Amino acid sequence: MELTDIIEVNELFSPMYGYVAGQVLAAYGRDDGTALELGPFASGVAIELARRCDRLRLTVGDDFPGVTAYFERKVRDAGLAERIRVLPLNKLDLDFPEDSFDLVVFRGGLFFWDESQRIVEEAYRVLKSGGLAMVGGGFGAEAPDELIDSIATQSRDLNRKLGKRVLTETELKEILRAAGLDGRSAIDKRHGLWAVMRKG
C-alpha cells in the first residue's frame, strides 16, 4: 500500500462522501456530539459530516506514513481546520479512553487489514454509551447507480492494487461474534458492507 494509491482512492471516492455521510447520519440520528473518523481512507466523510452538522466536533486520524499531512491539507482546503482536528492514530490501539466519542466511522476498516476483529473492538471501546460505530465501506446507501457505475471499474482496480479482500456477510458476522458484539450490532449491505454497532 503506497500513499499515492491511498490518495488516488480517496480522491476517486470524493463524489460519494456526501452519500456515505448521509447514511451515517441517518443511523446516528443526531447532529451534535463528538465524532472520530479512522483509517488512511478518512477525512472525506468527516468533512461532509462537519458541513452538515455545525454542532459536531470531529477528529480524523491514522498512522500511515504521510497521510496525516494529506488529511490536514484536505481539512484546511475545506475551511474546516478549526472544527476537525487531525491526529496520528494507531487504529489497532487507539490512544483514547473508553467513552470518548458519540460516533466512530472507519471506511475500509474491514477489507485491508487482517486485524478486522481488533479494529471493530477498538471502534466500539471508545464509544460513549448510546454511541454508534460504523466500520466497513461502500458508496453510500442512497448513491445513484449511474454515479457508482462511473467509478466502479477504476475503484475495483485501485482496491485490488491496495490488496482489498472480499468479505462476505457470514464472515463479518463471525468477526462481530468473535469480538463479542453480535448482539450489539447489525449489518448494512446497501451499496456496500458495514458493521453498525451501538453501545448501550
Tell me what the structure shows.
- The protein has 200 residues and is α/β, with parallel strands linked by helices.
- It has a single domain (3-198), classed as 3-Layer(aba) Sandwich (Rossmann fold), CATH 3.40.50.150.
- It has helices spanning 3-12, 17-28, 44-52, 67-77, 116-125, 145-162, 169-178; strands at 32-38, 55-61, 84-87, 101-107, 127-138, 185-188, 192-198.
- It has a seven-stranded mixed sheet with strand order 3-2-1-4-5-7-6, sandwiched between helices.
- Strand 1, helix 3 and strand 2 form a beta-alpha-beta unit.
- The model has no long low-confidence stretch (mean pLDDT 96).
Domain module count: 1
What is the rounded distance between the termini? 36 Å
Residue share in β-strands? 15-25%
The CATH class is Alpha Beta
Q: What is the count of helical runs?
A: 7
CATH homologous superfamily - what is it?
Vaccinia Virus protein VP39
Biggest sheet: strands, sense, closure? 7 strands, mixed
Structural class: alpha/beta
Instruction: Order the strands across the largest sheet as they lie in space.
Output: 3-2-1-4-5-7-6
